[in-house]
Amino acid sequence: MAKKVLVVDDEKTIVKGIKYSLEQDGMKVDSAFDGEEALELAKNNAYDMVLLDVMLPKMDGFEVCQQIREFSSVPIVMITAKGDDMDKILGLEYGADDYITKPFNILEVKARIKAIMRRTTKADTQASVLTFGELVINEEYRRVYVGDKEINLTSREFDVLEFLVSTPGKVYNRSELLHAIWGEDFPGDERTVDVHVRRLREKLEKSPSEPRYVRTKWGSGYFFQA
């Protein structure tokens, strides 16, 4: 089945270029040119990826991202014309999975999209369900529950959790996590890891300041407590 992507940018030439390129790779592409239109499309369609510009009319990309996160864990890649690191971190704070800075090469955009899609698509048909007390992780369907409540994680948050869970008790420093999950060529810095760990704790833990699952070994890094 063809992957479906929503491209959101008020610059129609950029949307047209991205749409054409993705369609050449067999993807289905919807377009939106303002924040309200993007949010409406995201509510009414099942997308495999959202490319979302920060600077949009009616509602900016950060607000759109935040509202999408209230009902969907679809991977979101923010597009920003600014080089300011805080813009990028703010995008991650609102639940974005990745970001691309303008001007960009369309080949880079496609590579980033395909990398995220590979991580979120499981070829294995047998579900692997891991249980740690009240925490239940379904690796095949990438769904997480605490007790009877499903927790809405972004694809990157799930990647962090899954990676830590794979070796309970093993401590990974920020650099190791950044390279393992975001890749060697990721342009962000180690604060990205801290943002995602903090968000994971806020979603999974009864007391985020005293975490039960995603723990810190001071001066060393993070680990999962089984």
Structure description:
- This protein has 226 residues and is α/β, with parallel strands linked by helices.
- It folds into two domains: 4-120, 3-Layer(aba) Sandwich (Rossmann fold), CATH 3.40.50.2300; 129-224, Arc Repressor Mutant, subunit A (Orthogonal Bundle), CATH 1.10.10.
- Helix content is 39%, strand content 21%.
- The chain contains eight helices and eleven strands.
- The strands form three sheets. A five-stranded parallel sheet has the order 2-1-3-4-5, with helices on both faces.
- β10 and β11 (221-224) form a beta hairpin.
- The longest helix has 15 residues, at 106-120.
Secondary-structure map:
Layout: E1 4-8, H1 12-24, E2 28-32, H2 35-44, E3 49-53, H3 61-68, E4 76-80, H4 85-93, E5 98-101, H5 106-120, E6 129-132, E7 135-138, E8 143-146, E9 149-151, H6 155-165, H7 174-182, H8 191-204, E10 214-217, E11 221-224
Helix pairs in contact: 2-3, 6-7, 6-8
Keywords:
39% helix, Rossmann fold, five-stranded parallel sheet, 8 helices, 226 residues, alpha/beta, four-stranded antiparallel sheet, 11 strands, 2 domains, Arc Repressor Mutant, subunit A
In short:
The chain has eight helices and eleven strands.
Strand pairing plus helix content: what structural class?
alpha/beta
In spatial order, strands of the major sheet run 2-1-3-4-5
Number of strands: 11
List SSEs in N-to-C order. Answer: EHEHEHEHEHEEEEHHHEE
Mean pLDDT level: 87
The CATH fourth-level homologous superfamily of the largest domain: Response regulator
Biggest beta sheet attributes: 5 strands, parallel
CATH architecture classification of the largest domain: 3-Layer(aba) Sandwich
The first-to-last residue Cα distance is 37 Å
State the shape.
globular
Helix content: 25-40%
- What kind of oligomer do you see? single chain
Radius of gyration from the alpha-carbon trace, in angstroms = 18 Å
CATH class call of the largest domain: Alpha Beta
Strand content: 15-25%
What is the helix tally? 8
> Would you tell me which CATH topology of the largest domain applies?
Rossmann fold
Which segments are poorly predicted (pLDDT under 50) over 5 or more consecutive residues?
none
